[in-house]
Amino acid sequence: MISLNTFFKKKNLLESSLFKIIDNICSGAKMVNEVLLSGNPENFKSENVKNIQNEDVQKLDLIANNIFLENFKNNFEINGILSEENEKIIKGNSHGKYLIAMDPLDGSSNISVNIPVGSIFSILQKKNLSVSLCENDFLVKGKEQECAAYILYGTSTILILALNNEVNGFTLNLNKNDFFLTFPNLQIPEEGNIFSINEGNIRSVDKEIFNYVEHCKGLNPEGKRTHTGRFIGSLVADFHRNMMKGGIFIYPKTSDKPNGQLRLIYECNPIALIAKFAGSKSSDGITSILEKKPKSIHERTAFITGSTKMVDELLSFYKND
Ligand code: FBP
Description:
Layout: H1 4-10, H2 17-37, E1 46-50, E2 56-58, H3 59-73, E3 78-83, E4 90-91, E5 98-106, E6 117-125, E7 147-153, E8 157-163, E9 166-173, E10 178-183, E11 194-196, H4 207-216, E12 228-229, H5 235-245, E13 247-251, E14 262-263, H6 264-277, E15 281-283, E16 300-301, E17 303-306, H7 308-319
Helix pairs in contact: 2-3, 4-7
The chain binds 1,6-di-O-phosphono-beta-D-fructofuranose.
1,6-di-O-phosphono-beta-D-fructofuranose (FBP) binds next to β5.
């Protein structure tokens, strides 16, 4: 089995700044994994406070945030960090080339009920090192990401890494306490039959989304279902399943969330880069996610991603208007 170190060595990237950042992410993920497996029910409770996005903060949101910030702290390659759990950006080393945007714990609403959760990372280069760090440094199109990754804490703990037009998956071997290459050169199946959407919102979504979901519920000439619905409520887990099996993930604008639920810079952009390097695409219904220029650091967006033919089919509902 090829370890993460060997994988980067083979690509002559073992000494690279990027590897140091990925290594920080992996150390943090191992620590979050230990907390998840610690069996301490206290860790799965609510903090009874709201974050700047007016969402309930779970203890594990803060534990994961602190763990990753601690792991990044001594990495002088990092100029600044944007985290879902922090209102403001966090300054790093002013000479550092890289910026990190992260969702330290994705799927917070599932923490207390033992359902898979994740951590999501977007890695960018700071454009102008002579100018001190500011929010504008993060307001760049997703296509400018250097690398993206997520950790899925599920039946096993997996790192999915998008780098140099490739997506590779690594599984944490608890005995060796290291990540090993288990899913080389991942490609999203062009076609699939899984649709993932929170249908609790279906009465307040765009008619194009409504009509596409109705289409997915259609029966074939033998009266059999043509698609199957799956929605876990953890973006990383829903995307991962659809990437492995073929499917479409949809979180549209709703009356509750008129700009969408998911954050563009540290949830949608990294997932969209992974989808792109795995041969697929992402959109907000009108614009490719990786072409959207954010206006604010915690900005939300509608998000559609998954198997190319299914995404194209949904987008055709917008075009046919
Ligand atoms: P956070 O947990 O990081 O805030 O992420 C948002 C999220 O939980 C996604 O993982 C998931 O896809 C979505 O929100 C679920 O939203 P809802 O509960 O409205 O279906």
